Amino acid sequence: MASATLLKSSFLPNKAEWGATRQVAAPKPVTVSMVVRASAYADELVQTAGLVPLAGSNDESWCQGLDGLASREAAYYQAGARFAKWRTVVSIPNGPSELAVKEAAWGLARYAAISQENGLVPIVEPEILLDGEHGIERTFEVAQKVWAETFYYMAENNVMFEGILLKPSMVTPGAECTDRATPEQVADYTLKLLHRRIPPAVPGIMFLSGGQSEVEATQNLNAMNQGPNPWHVSFSYARALQNTCLKTWGGRPENVKAAQDALLLRAKANSLAQLGKYTSDGEAAEASEGMFVKNYVY
Length: 298
Prior knowledge:
By secondary structure, the chain is mainly alpha-helical. It has a single domain (about 1-10, about 30-280), classed as Aldolase class I (TIM Barrel), CATH 3.20.20. Helix content is about 50%, strand content about 10%. The chain has helices at about 1-10, 15-25, 30-50, 70-80, 100-115, 135-155, 185-195, 215-225, 240-250, 255-275, and strands at about 50-55, 60-65, 85-90, 120-130, 165, 205, 230-235. Strand 6 (about 205), helix 8 and strand 7 (about 230-235) form a beta-alpha-beta unit. Helix 5 crosses helix 6 and helix 9 packs antiparallel against helix 10 (about 255-275). The longest helix is centred in the middle third of the chain and has 21 residues, at about 135-155. The relative contact order is 0.11. Pfam families: Glycolytic (PF00274). Belongs to the class I fructose-bisphosphate aldolase family.
C-alpha cells in the first residue's frame, strides 16, 4: 500500500535511531505560555474547519474539512509535522441518529486514509459527548456502535491500523446523571469496549478528558492501568491537564512559578496513572471540581 510505504520510509525511526534521538534531544520544560499558545493555535485551526450543523439530523453536528486536506497535510509534512488529529462528536441526547454516526465514522476514516497517504500518523478522535442524563450503560451502547462503524470504514478505506493512534472518550455516565460511576466501573466498561472493538494492531489509545474533573480523569485512567492491556493506554487531556494551571496563573507574572508547579503536579499525576501507580495524596480541592459545560463548543 502507498500509505504503508510512506509511513515506513518517511519518519518512523528504527531502534538505533530512536536511541540516538533520545540522547541528543533534551526535553524542553513546559511553560504556562506554551499551554496558552497551544490553546490559541487550536482556536485558530477551528476557524478553518470544524463542527457544523448536520442537515437532516436531530440537531446534530458533523466535522467538515476533508476538502483540500491532502494538499494541506502535504504542506504540513514538509514543514515538519508527523501527526494529525481529527475530532468529531456524537451526542446521546440528540439520538444519536444513524446519519450522525455514519457521518462521524466516514469522516474519521477518510481523514485517516488521507493522513497516512501524506506520511502523517492520524490521531482518530471519536468523542461521545458528556451531555445528558443517561447512565453508563447507554454510553457503552452508543460507543460500541460508533467505534464499530469507525473501524469498519477505516478498513474500507485501507487504513493501516498499526499506523494510527486512537483518542476516544471514556465510557462514563452523562454529566447530568444522578447515578455516578466509580473509577473501577469506568475502567471496567471502557476496557470491555476496547476489547470488543479495537484491533490489537492499534499501538496506542490516548483518552480525552471531555469535561471530567482533573482528579476524575486521572483516577479513571489509573484504574484502567491496574492490569496488562494489549495497547498502551495513556492520556491526551486539555482541560483536565491545564485547568488548575491557568486558573493559578490568571495572567499575572507573579503567579508563573505557582502555575508551572500546578502543571507539573498534574502532568506527574497522569504519568503515574498511565502506569497504574497514581494516588490522590496531595491533590488540591480545585482539581476535583467538574469542568463539564453543557453544549460546550470549541
